Amino acid sequence: MCLFCKIVDNQIPSNKVLEDDNFLAFHDISPKAPIHVLVVPKKHIEKFHDIDAKDMGLMSQFIQKVATKMGLEKNGYRLIVNNGPDGGQEVMHLHFHLLGGAKLNWPHFVNPEDRAKKFL
Ligand code: AMP
After folding, report:
1. From ligand 1's centre to the CA of 52, what distance in Å?
2. Atom of ligand 1 at shortest distance to CA of 87?
3. Whose CA is closest to atom 20 on ligand 1?
4. 74-97 pLDDT, tens digit each
């Protein structure tokens, strides 16, 4: 069972924000912003590339509820999904990072050496 499946199954504790039959939101253990919540489907879906339209629709609505519950509706927030090795995904269970609570920077994502090689 993967790390986030264990969190969904309560085998590993988490600081929960919201849950329904299909999704769970909990605080990231290593926050990168004043508010940093992870949103996961309860069923194991490895990565964003594998989710279908129906589940993505439901997940979008759930994420909106989480953002509202965290008080982020008015000032906004950022959603990030790391997908696969080049996307920097470390936990292979689909999760959206919901970040907010401050005006966020828009950082450079690629190392300078790589930027020189590519069309960036
Ligand atoms: P990613 O690099 O997109 O796969 O993100 C994985 C995220 O999971 C990171 O932001 C970690 O800080 C977070 N994380 C890892 N273990 C836990 C945990 N036990 N509880 C909450 N967040 C976690």
Report:
1. 23
2. 3
3. 29
4. 999 999 999 999 999 999 999 999
- Looking only at the bridges linking them, the beta strands covering 96-100 and 35-41 are antiparallel
Is 95 in the active site?
yes
Residue 32: CB atoms within 10 A of its CB come to 11
Q: What is the CATH number of the domain that holds 84?
A: 3.30.428.10
* Secondary structure in 3-state letters for 74-105: CCCCEEECCCHHHHCCCCCCCCEEEEECCCCC
Q: Is residue 120 part of a domain?
A: no
Atom from ligand 1 closest to the CA of residue 14: 20
Total domains present in the chain: 1
Identify the three-state secondary structure at position 14: coil
Ligand 1 centroid to Cα of residue 91, in Å, is 7
Q: List C-alpha distances in Å: 22 to 19, 28, 53.
A: 8, 19, 15
pTM above 0.90, yes or no: yes
Q: 36, 44, 49, 95: which is the annotated catalytic residue?
A: 95
